[in-house]
Amino acid sequence: MKLLQEFQNRYNNITYSLFELESGAKLIHLLNPATVNFDFRLMHKAGNIYEDQTKVQHGTAHLLEHLLTGPNSTFKTKESIHKYEEGNDKKPALMTNAHTGYKCLTFDGFTHEDGTERFLYRIESEIEFSKDKISKELANERKIVIAERSRQPQTEKDPFLQRLIYLQGKELKALTYNRIGEITQIPNISIDDLELFFNNRIIGGIPLFSIQSRKLPSKSVIKTIENICKRYSMKFLEDIPNPKLNNKLDIGYYYDDKATGTVLELNYFDKIEPGIDYAKEAKRGILNSMIRRAAFEILREQMGIVYGSESFIENWYTIGHDIKGLKFVVDNTRFGEILDKLDAFIFTDIEKFISSTKGDRWLKHIISKYIFPNTIEYDQNLPYEVGMDYWETGTIYNHNLYTEEVQKLTQDQVIEHLHELQKTPPHIWVESNLPEEEITKTVKQSNLWKRYSK
Fold first, then answer.
1. 272: which of 190, 314, 351, 392 lies 20 to 30 Å off by Cα?
2. Which residues of 70-79 are buried (b: 16+ CB within 10 A; e: fewer)?
3. pLDDT reading at 310 higher than 90
4. Are 327 and 263 in contact, with CB atoms under 8 Å apart?
5. Is the distance from CB of 432 to CB of 264 less than 8 angstroms?
6. Which pLDDT value is given to residue 308?
7. How do 427-432 and 250-255 pair as beta strands?
8. What is the 3-state secondary structure (H, E, C) of 16-39?
């Protein structure tokens, strides 16, 4: 086992390590002295975005996840699984689960550190396509997944999916489907679909292991993980090509008949480059905080237009890009007003606020939180978050380096980054119960639209 990267995060007192195993797989370990848990993620690039590429029915990845955690050649019945995972006065309980996202299918869970070996034995059993067992469970598991899907809105009435279709539907259709599949599609998922996806996207690739515990993995734990790797072909899989997501002025709309107000978003694509530019990350993060504060001071406290606003950066539903955004929720009667105020807000008010004495105090206030951090909550999901960051950038995110860059920031540097945002035309997204024609007309008559459409 070869150590590739290591540092202690001064923010949470966790030591982050990246190892390369003899098999070629990577192991991320988070040495956390504040836990007695063994938190575990076994990650595969096998989310639902790979279903079209593999030529299987939509919903195959999620249904496969359900079935792989069920009976297999090691645990022949669900009752034997329950019995094995239950704790008593001599052994800790095992909490095992699995999740399917857009990009990733994981086997995960946690136990007390004394249950580590038993936990890994259970995980190892799941990396198997037992055709006989899966055939017997398939019909019933389909019903369970259909019931799960029935609790969610129809795709055409799902504002989140409609927003994805608007933002990247032309360039990246794989990210615009419901991750579970549609009720009409789930019954058509065949045993061959499931086996093909398992062979291609699960054992056909290279897994990523991510663990959080208070001790480094023992030799026996590493041996078990290496044995798990023997189930994989350990080949680099074809990934989804990075789409060409361009920033341009346009408008997307979703009619929400349950709404009593209007949601207005300005969205911007930001391409992810290899590695991590901590100086840029610091500017993005601090500018977001400055915008939120300026919106609170000006749009809420002075003008009373909004209750609150959001400034966000997300990438869990994109490939090769972050989506930066500003979000405002307003009363329908003031939708036109917020649009016109936003032009002055983005191009004049934010910069004035950052340059002001109050803005200087706010910047120092933000920096102080990095110099004097508070106690943070224990995060069982951290192995997944660190693993996804590693896959996105090829390195483990080092919060220490981010903090160092934050402490160097000046008002002028934050304003410089604001100017970059100002140059970028937004994808305007609106959710409202107002008629689409009224929304479109109001947007296109606004000062903000006129500025970018010149």
1. 351
2. bbbeebeeee
3. yes
4. yes
5. no
6. 76
7. parallel
8. EEEEECCCCCEEEEEECCCCCEEE
> What percentage of the chain exceeds 90 in pLDDT?
94
As given in the structure block, the two tokens for residue 271 are 């391409």
Q: At CB < 8 A and 24+ separation, what contacts does 301-307 make?
A: 303/341, 305/330, 305/334, 305/337, 305/338, 305/341, 306/330, 306/338
Q: How far apart are CA 164 and CA 169, in angstroms?
A: 7
Burial (0-12, 13-18, 19+ Cβ within 10 Å), 423: exposed
Return the C-alpha torsion angle 309, 429, 426, 300, nearest 10.
Answer: -20
Q: What local confidence, expressed as pLDDT, does residue 282 receive?
A: 97
Lowest mean pLDDT among 48-57, 81-90, 202-211, 299-308: 299-308
Q: Tokens 């008593």, residue? A: 88
DSSP E strands in 80-228: the ranges are 94-100, 105-112, 208-213
* 263 vs 259: CA distance, rounded Å: 9
E strand or H helix that includes residue 267:
strand 261-271
